[in-house]
């Protein structure tokens, strides 16, 4: 009978993996990166330390994968596109507003905010961790902006002399600045203004 | 005779103050904010702990003043305007490029970079320190951008419907993003592109 089959090992390890991710993100948000240890992650996840070391070489590696998984989950919930690309309805301003509003929601989501701040703070003072963070977490999402802006160039909506890799920083830079430094509230209205200013510029035409 | 006069106490305390600032900035850049103590600052500066506590209530207070003094010194060296305002030659693009290039020089100046990263990282995870950092260090310089953009609006160079407080984030946000996260090199060419894109926008006119 079905009930008597042994538990599916891939299902069990998927549960452990998820528990390890949750423990790692919870701890780093609560005590910061330096004080988050593999031992503490294992204890909170209810697994042995060796289980973690079997799958990942270091706490940085666990955390980076936990963030990738968290990012995928939050992006899916917020409907801001996925690993395949940003929305492309043909209306660049509308599409960018969807994406930047979703980014605001993500950055202010409690499940996301504390661990992301802790990792960002550590990456700022630790160049090696920072480089891994950028390469594995940030660059893949920045490439989606490059692709969307290139499509807009091909559609004749964005000037051909614009470098999309620089241009995207006018969109993500202000949101990150306001979020990291908490200068003023991070709202959908702010996201919309950033898109409008970026597309049309400040100067009188 | 002049040589026999007792040392000028204001000159002596100015020397101590400068030694304390240098010690505080050096330490925070080397060991990070949490491990920088008033004791260690006093020892490195060659003053008693009580001298520090006579002038400042906490290490955060010493550090914030040390950063204000450092910022004034670096801004003066780089000729990027001062507390009275950004350059205003009437050519907004040229003036902003001077300021953003000077910001690039400041952010990549070794005397400035390590302590500023350490303080920024701490402010990101410590909301109270972050708020002091913004209020005492960041906001005063952001207000200079607001004033310069308002002058440009009055001169008819910037559209009247632009909110200068939001617009300035298209200028400072990308530089901060690239600097903090080390995504790509922070150069004068990048500063120039940010100014051009911000003023003229990405979209076909």
Description:
2 copies of one chain form a homodimer. By secondary structure, the first copy, chain A, is mainly α. Chain A has a domain at 59-200: Tetracycline Repressor, domain 2, CATH 1.10.357.10. Chain A contains 9 helices and no strands. Chain A has helices at residues 9-31, 38-45, 49-55, 59-78, 92-107, 110-125, 127-154, 164-181, 188-200. Chain A is elongated. At the A-B interface, α6, α7, α8 and α9 of A face α6, α7, α8 and α9 of B. Chains A, B: Pfam families: TetR_C_11, TetR_N.
Low-confidence stretches of chain A: none
Under CATH at level 1, the class of one domain in chain A stands as Mainly Alpha
Q: What general form of chain A does the structure show?
A: elongated
Q: How would a crystallographer describe the biggest sheet of chain A? A: none
Mean pLDDT over the residues of chain A: 90
Q: Classify the helix fraction of chain A into a percent range.
A: over 70%
Report the radius of gyration of chain A as a whole number of Å. 20 Å
Number of strands of chain A: 0
Number of helices of chain A: 9
**Per CATH, which architecture of one domain in chain A?**
Orthogonal Bundle
Question: What's the name of the CATH homologous superfamily of one domain in chain A?
Answer: Tetracycline Repressor, domain 2
Termini Cα gap of chain A: 75 Å
- Approximately how much beta-strand content do the residues of chain A carry? under 5%
CATH third-level topology of one domain in chain A: Tetracycline Repressor, domain 2
Q: Oligomeric form of this entry?
A: homodimer
Largest interface: A-B, 54 and 54 residues
Order of helices and strands of chain A: HHHHHHHHH
> Pairing-aware structural class of the strands and helices of chain A?
mainly alpha
């Amino acid at each position: 009978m079905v009930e008597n089959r042994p538990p599916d090992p891939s299902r069990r390890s998927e549960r452990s993996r998820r528990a390890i991710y949750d423990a790692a993100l919870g701890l780093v948000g609560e005590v910061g990166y330096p004080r988050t240890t593999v031992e503490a992650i294992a204890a909170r996840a209810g697994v042995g330390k060796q289980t973690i070391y079997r799958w990942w070489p270091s706490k940085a590696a666990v955390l980076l994968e936990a963030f990738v998984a968290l990012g995928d989950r939050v992006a899916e919930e917020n409907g801001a596109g996925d690993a395949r690309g940003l929305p492309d309805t043909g209306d660049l301003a509308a599409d960018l507003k969807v994406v930047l509003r979703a980014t605001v929601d993500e950055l202010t989501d409690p499940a996301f905010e504390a661990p992301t701040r802790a990792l960002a703070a550590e990456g700022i003072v630790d160049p090696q961790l920072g480089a891994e963070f950028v390469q594995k977490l940030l660059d893949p999402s920045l490439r989606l902006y490059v692709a969307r802006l290139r499509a807009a160039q091909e559609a004749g909506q964005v000037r051909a002399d614009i470098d999309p890799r620089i241009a995207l920083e006018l969109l993500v830079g202000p949101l990150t600045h306001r979020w990291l430094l908490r200068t003023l509230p991070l709202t959908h209205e702010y996201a919309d203004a950033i898109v409008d200013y970026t597309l049309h510029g400040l100067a009188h035409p």
